[in-house]
Design goal:
Shape: globular
Largest sheet: 5 strands, mixed
Strand content: over 45%
């Protein structure tokens, strides 16, 4: 990453993604790690019969799949959530801007490998000073690489919001009364 002047700020333990920040350009980048077919020569030779392919060393390359400009500092927190189709959503908490920036990944299975990319029109931001992935609306459901997770976010006016992500990315606002001690407050449940 040094040749790109990028500082690694997050890596995923579930899917082959990495996020970095370039202070000079004030931009975040998302990179996907991809295996290089360097063992093709070995596979075509007689060594393939003797050495199983799992034992052979693999080489990886990083491909930049997204860039987001305009943040003077690196994201304070990065995490994964999922929509109702189990598609990963990558979330960047930008406390200085009081927002949570989210981008939807797209995946394609090709030759028993899952390739990731990001559609440029599949991103949005919501007001937040703190946020985290939570398992609320689909507690025991798992489909694909990740468990179904929603997003809980705290806004600057101390409102706690639950975002259950929909693949259509349309916003539906639902008011639900919540009781805090003896006083009643209204909380908003947003469906993305």
């Amino acid at each position: 990453m040094k040749e790109f002047d990028e500082q690694t700020i997050w890596t995923s333990d579930r899917i082959p993604l990495m996020a970095s920040y370039n202070k000079g350009k004030m931009q975040h980048s998302v990179w996907v790690a991809e295996a290089i077919s360097s063992n093709l020569e070995v596979a075509n030779s007689k060594l393939f019969d003797v050495i199983p392919s799992e034992v052979l060393p693999k080489q990886f390359s990083f491909r930049r799949i997204w860039q987001g400009k305009g943040s003077q500092t690196a994201a304070n927190k990065i995490f994964l959530a999922t929509d109702d189709d189990a598609v990963p959503i990558l979330c960047f908490l930008l406390q200085e801007q009081k927002k949570l920036l989210s981008v939807r990944l797209q995946s394609v299975e090709l030759n028993n490998e899952i390739l990731f990319d990001i559609k440029p029109d599949m991103s949005w931001s919501i007001p937040a000073i703190a946020a985290a992935p939570v398992i609320v609306t689909r507690p025991r459901a798992k489909m694909g690489l990740l468990p179904f997770t929603d997003i809980i976010a705290l806004t600057s006016d101390n409102t706690l919001l639950l975002y259950a992500l929909r693949s259509s990315c349309s916003v539906h606002k639902r008011k639900t009364p919540m009781e805090f001690g003896s006083s009643h407050k209204e909380n908003y449940l947003w469906w993305l």
